[in-house]
Amino acid sequence: MILARYLPHLRATLALGLPLVGSHLSRMAIGVADTVMLGWYGVNELAALVIATSFFHILFFMGMGFGIGVMGLIATAIARGDEVEVRRSARMALWLSIGFALLVIPLMWHSGPILLAIGQAPAVAQLAQDYLRIAGFGLVAVLCQLTLNSYLAAMERTQVVLWVTLAGLPLVIVLNWALIFGHWGAPELGVRGAAIVAVFVQYLQLAALLAYAAWLPVARKYHLFQRFWRPDWAELRRVFLLGMPIGLTMLAEGGLFVGSNVMMGWIGTRELAAHGIALQLASITFMLHLGMSNAATVRIGQAKGRGDGQGMRDAGVTVIAVSVLWALLAVAAFELFPRQLVGLYLDATHPETPAIIAIAAGLLFYAGLFQLMDAMQVVGLGLLRGVQDTRVPMVIAVISYWLVGIPVAYGVAFGLGVGPAGLWIGLVVGLSLAAVLMMRRFWRGYARGDWTRRKPAV
């Protein structure tokens, strides 16, 4: 009986979510390729990439709320058969994504003094600015891709997102080999080479998604790009009010990790490099939970559009079960094979490699601890976004990550003298609090039917 009840939800969730997981993993694999290849190139370059991508992602997190927010809106509108609302929401999300990216690019151009002001080593700050002055121009492409991903995911056309993202991986590896190291007659550009490759591939992927969205027969009735230049101020305001809290939520969560990067930089360059490796390994496993969170947003949004409360609850249970199982597998890998996993990122002949492996392997113990809580907080966010609840989750995120997580990390690492492991203890505490509060809000409110009585979030 239970199997018969949940099996359709499991099939639908996996059909929708696995391609999203694959696309997130492919995108992460591109970051892994950059990290590994710059790790082979030099420790300073690796540390610069860690801090530069942290800076980039802070701005990306602030702008990604518009693209993420429309996923639930579009899924609900499609379930209601509201073609005009689909077009209005997606188009204004693209407007907001482009506008935000153009607004913040100058911050990346002048990032060097900012990085010095927050205590980064001069050599690392200069290399990070070199990277950001090129990579910053890719933010337009990345944010527009995110919006198109949501548009296609709401129509359950996630496979193309996977293939477009996956196609970028071998291209990045080949071009990095040429431009980072100077092979095949290309100039040796180090971190600047990695940035050039990233921007080039990002715009190629955006072009592919734009072409598919325009061609897709099922989407033609929405006329997404017809008179694209015409403003829709009411919908622009609606998407902004829905998306900005999501962006701030992502900023709060991302800021927890970026703050740990900055504080790890205060401890030392080797520690920062090791931290970046451990964090990226944890991020790889997180991609499944992020894909399931996206699937939850669509599935919950569809149920909301149909007025199906039981379907909403069953979809939520299914997504949570999948994420919990994956989290347990990730914990086992981190606890059993830490040195082998870290060793994949480093040149075994480099004199600093043994020290970095020792530090990073120790940090993976804590990465294993927060796997389950990290899964639950991001799935909880996905469930709440499906019912277009974004403001209270923003408050929860700020409290959990900045009023609890960061102070605990600083206090344990520096006040108690624990060092790098102390920063990761702070991550565990912040994520755990967020997970409990997000899940409590969904299951004690919306899953009981409160979504039928509450006013819209925007």
From TrEMBL:
The chain crosses the membrane at residues 55-80, 92-111, 131-148, 160-181, 193-218, 239-260, 272-294, 315-334, 354-373, 394-415, 421-439. It is found in: Cell inner membrane. Keywords: Antiport, Cell membrane, Ion transport, Membrane, Transmembrane, Transmembrane helix, Transport. One of its GO terms (cellular component) is plasma membrane. InterPro entries: MATE_fam (IPR002528), MATE_MdtK (IPR050222), MdtK-like (IPR048279). The keyword Cell membrane applies. Pfam families: MatE. It comes from the Bacteria. GO terms for biological process: monoatomic ion transport. Coiled coil: none annotated. The keyword Cell membrane applies. One of its GO terms (molecular function) is antiporter activity. CDD domains: MATE_NorM_like. It is a multi-pass membrane protein. This is Multidrug-efflux transporter.
